[in-house]
């Protein structure tokens, strides 16, 4: 069962079965990644350290709309300087930035968690091929690498026998989806919703799969209850230290097993989901994707991108498209050309 937040804040109720996906957009200011309330991406902490400046003189007769447009233009010019992120050069065998990953997300145990599970395998493959063709046509300079993104640890609406509020996917199901990926020469991503477990504990279970050269990792802060609460009743969070732990694990596997670099996808659609983003370390053995994971109309998705992805550059970017939730109010699903109009152009595209 997928849980979402509408424009009017609501209490979130956990489903009795599987939880998955992202909450939608909330109106008003959101807490920044550094803990301050902001609309611009400059945290209260950072602002407190900035030298005092006199407000710029207002041109005579300038309207409020014109002042806002001038301020927005100055902000965007400043943010544009942060992209592309200066990081380590890609190692041989790296997927990004020369290819764009197009992934189908979900879990075969549920038709409500995503297209990976909603459709029978032949129909799913045919639909993925159509999306691949559309993306290749829209941007032939960045050929598509297909992927299947399996939720391998699924947050639950009750504690379970071990009190961890998560269900681990069976080895048999992981191998089944991995077999599907091999048939398509696709990558496989294992997504982790830790509930009240720990990232260290859940990654340990997945090591046998992550040692494979075509298996990569996704982290979902929404259901990481590192600061308390129950999955689905509040949005969870990861700090940079958690993400750095995953980077260290993946980098160690790359070195030990002589693997090509791994891709790490981190979901995000609010500020507090990822704290201290500026402390996320870049390692050439791990390519980090900050993934815009919220549903709604195109204008809402662009707004979330501009507030929670664009102002907080880490390395690469991703964008999620929801076949049902993006369109349920009659709005169109964003086309590849719409997504490619974003700056920077997302290199990881996920369909749910």
Spatial order of strands in the largest sheet: 3-4-6-7-9-11-12-13
Q: Helix segment count?
A: 9
User: Per DSSP, what share of the residues sits in E-state strands of 2 or more residues?
Assistant: 15-25%
If you average the pLDDT, what whole number results? 86
- Structural class from helices and strands? alpha/beta
Question: Quick recap of the structure?
Answer:
Residues 29-50, 57-66 have a biased composition (Low complexity). By secondary structure, this protein is of the alpha/beta class.
Model description:
Residues 29-50, 57-66 have a biased composition (Low complexity). Residues 69-81 have a biased composition (Basic and acidic residues). Residues 1-29 form the signal peptide. Residues 29-91 are annotated as: Disordered. The chain has nine helices and 13 strands. With 352 residues, it is α/β, with parallel strands linked by helices. The chain has a single domain (100-351), classed as TIM Barrel (Alpha-Beta Barrel). The strands form three sheets. The chain has an eight-stranded parallel β-barrel with strand order 3-4-6-7-9-11-12-13, surrounded by five helices. A two-stranded antiparallel sheet has the order 1-2. Strands 8-10 form a two-stranded parallel sheet. β6 (187-192), α6 and β7 form a beta-alpha-beta unit. α6 runs parallel beside α7. The longest helix is centred in the middle third of the chain and has 18 residues, at 121-138.
